[in-house]
Amino acid sequence: MSGVAAKVAKDRAVAEGLGTNKNPVKYLNQDYEELRTQCLASKTLFKDDQFPACPSALGYNDLGPNSPKTTGIVWKRPSEICEKPHFIVDGATRGDIRQGALGDCWLLAAVASLTLDPNILARVVPENQSFEKDYAGIFHFQFWQFGEWVDVVVDDRLPTKDGRLLFVHSEEGDEFWSALLEKAYAKLCGSYEALTGGSPIEGFEDFTGGIAEEYLLKNAPADLFQIIQKALKAESLLGCSIDITNAYQTEDITSRKLVKGHAYSVTGAAEVVYKGKNVQLIRVRNPWGEVEWTGPWSDDAPEWNFIDPKVRASLDKKANDGEFWMAYTDWVTQYSRLDICNLTPDTLTSNDQHKWNVTLFNGSWVRGSTAGGCQNYPGTFWTNPQFRIKLDEPDNDQDGTSQDPSCTIIVGLMQKNRRRQKKLGDDLLTIGYALYKVPKELQDQTDVHLKNDFFQKTPSAGRSDTFVNMREVSKRMKLPVGDYLIVPSTFEPLKAGDFCLRIFSEKAAESVEVGDVAKADPYEPQVTDKDITSDFKDMFQKLAGDKDEVTVNDIQTILNKLLSKRKDLKSNGFSLATCREMVSLMDMDGTGTLSLIECKTLWMKIQKYTEIFIKADNDKSGTMDAHEMRAALQDAGFTLSNAIQENIAKRYADTDLTINFDAFISCMTRLETLFKMFNLLDKDNSGRIDLTLPEWLCATLI
User: Fold this and answer.
1) Which of 255, 359, 432, 451 has its CB surrounded by the most CB atoms within 10 Å?
2) Distant-in-sequence, close-in-space partners of 109: CB < 8 Å, separation ≥ 6
3) Which residues does the annotation mark as catalytic?
4) 3-state DSSP call for residue 405?
5) Alpha-carbon distance 386 to 455, whole Å?
6) What's the chain's Rg over C-alpha atoms?
7) CA distance linking residue 648 with residue 462, whole number of Å
8) How many C-beta neighbours within 10 Å does residue 318 have?
């Protein structure tokens, strides 16, 4: 209950702007300025009790407390490592990043790319931090995490061995921003060991909030050059590299002066007329600042003598500055892969018109509710979270005919917090998504999930390339104008996890989570004296006596006696707790008892719900599958969001993900009571109610 309340409070704060880069979430509620001020006032150096300098911060297995790899490790502050430590000297450079005894080269490649863009670096590494002015042993960094920016505080105690930093360090040994950034990221992920293994794309995204695409150049799409041009115009970050087959090839230099296993930046794309033919060129930058391509279109290549002098003047720079041009055809052949990180509008510094429009949804796959698996499992696939996007404004340079205009979108599905869960033995889930075009007759139906019959007869209009166990799967798609449904899922059903779904579109697009509502239209029988049989009345009066009212215990006796007469239902009867729920629903005068009319009305409701339960109980076992609860709730008149469905599964399903008859009736009556209570208190139908704490407690303690 408290977790649900905390989530509601967080959602409201996010709606008010919490989680932006200008107003980041304070990770673990640690306020950098407040803690720093306290340390300066007390003349003490900060010690982080949330990520203490102890074995647990190192890891859980290879770097666990009893591992020989952690023997002899001593935590030291920079002033204990060198005579005069510095945070950043003459700007952050690639030389500040030297890998240590940790397999996080993926992260360091992303950090190295940060040094190429001072504006983005300043977002991740806030300025005005130093070991000189107002030094208090505390530093902070900002990262994007699953839809929000977080500010992470660390102390400057770093793991050392034989007096040297164990992990990332600077070339000179006296510059510490990179080591402290690595520590802050390790804190965010739970430990240093949690950083082992990954892709630079993950770092790109967590440093920018962007969405990444990866292209293997041996399978480059026909329009990749145009994609690159668009990405550069939108100020995206582009990086390319040459794959290596073993560690010994790292930074080997080819005969044409390209470096293997090394991260390059793509900084330009242009078309020139060369000897009467159009030639596509790519500009690449080596962050070393030297060692340049020596093939066609390099700085001193003869090709430059055969193009328009004005074009040459605008493109050609003859300097050994690490930046060079090459033919697109050579680039595709020489390099192995291209990574594009498309930035969100709030990351970009210019007001250029070519910004992406971004929609982000947070969701969960919950066992027995929304963890439906992929299309291979049609019985449960439809229970996965569903999201709608309306693409009604085509790209400016759309490729289709005027009758069939198209829209570019990038859809990214990212699973959350899996690094933190490594120590629990949880690996990455195998994830993917499918996208469907919604026919006109269903375009207005966003309150309820599209069911199995829709997916059985509707082919997908797009999908992620494959289901993989990566943090994120993403794909760029060009789709005809229209309404689309996106269904993210794990490969197998019953795999629990949290995710965020991001949709980048070239033009503004309306998006909504399907069924993100709460509505109720339950069965309300109108009972009169004529509806009450003599048998029912006799049974009631025997228990009620002169009071003409029955108690909870009486209700249990009556209902279980009536229930026992049904041979088509396997049930052990109603528990006293469920009967209390029933009395709460029907007791409008607050006596805690029910009259004859109220009792009969209740029984008629139960009969209605019993028919719904029997319909769902296909094998006549006396239970229904938790995934079938969504359809049963709809049959009972309830339209509920995924979050509510998930909480129902957690509360009413057994460990084997089945719901018995007693739990089902308890859930139905509880829902009816909550809706009735809200509607009574929401006198102006505003969808909101205001309660004092005593009123809230009285209303919920039912």
Assistant:
1) 432
2) 200, 203, 263
3) 105, 262, 286
4) coil
5) 12
6) 31
7) 32
8) 9
Arch. (CATH architecture) of 357-516: Sandwich (2.60)
Q: How far apart are CA 152 and CA 540, in angstroms?
A: 64
On whether the CB atoms of residues 155 and 53 are closer than 8 A, the answer is yes
Taking a C-beta distance cutoff of 8 angstroms, is the pair 370, 385 a contact? yes
Give strand pairing partners of 660: 623
**Lowest model confidence (mean pLDDT) among 67-81, 112-126, 342-356, 471-485:** 342-356
Question: For residues 206 and 124, is the Cβ–Cβ distance under 8 A?
Answer: no
Structure token digits, residue 148: 């929000």
Note the pLDDT tens digit of each residue in 473-519.
Answer: 999 999 999 999 999 999 999 999 999 999 999 888 989 999 888 89
Backbone angles phi, psi at 172, to 5 degrees: -80, -25
278 and 271 Cβ atoms separated by less than 8 Å? yes
For domain 211-342, the CATH superfamily is Cysteine proteinases (3.90.70.10)
Homologous superfamily of domain range 529-700: EF-hand (1.10.238.10)
Distance CA 64, CA 70 (A): 7
**3 state DSSP class of 99:** coil
In the chain, where are the structural domains located? 2-195, 211-342, 357-516, 529-700
- Between CA 660 and CA 613 the distance in angstroms is 9
How many Cβ atoms sit within 10 Å of the Cβ of residue 265?
Answer: 18
Rounded CA-CA distance 26/10 in Å is 12
Mapped onto helix, strand or coil, the DSSP state of residue 265 is: strand
Q: Pairing mode, if any, of strands 148-155 and 25-26?
A: parallel
> What is the token pair recorded at 266?
């793509």
The upper half-sphere exposure of residue 172, i.e. CA atoms within 13 Å in the direction of its Cβ, equals: 18
- The 158-161 sheet, strands edge to edge: 74-76, 158-161, 164-165
One-character DSSP codes across 19-49: TSSSS-EEGGG--HHHHHHHHHHHT-----T
Longest distance between any two alpha carbons in the chain, whole Å: 111
- Asked if 195 and 188 touch (Cβ cutoff 8 Å), the reply is no
Edge-first strand listing for the sheet containing 138-145: 25-26, 148-155, 138-145
pTM over 0.85: no
Indicate if 529-700 has the same CATH topology as 211-342: no
DSSP letter (8 states) at residue 591: S
On average, the pLDDT of the chain sits at: 88
283, containing H or E segment: strand 277-285
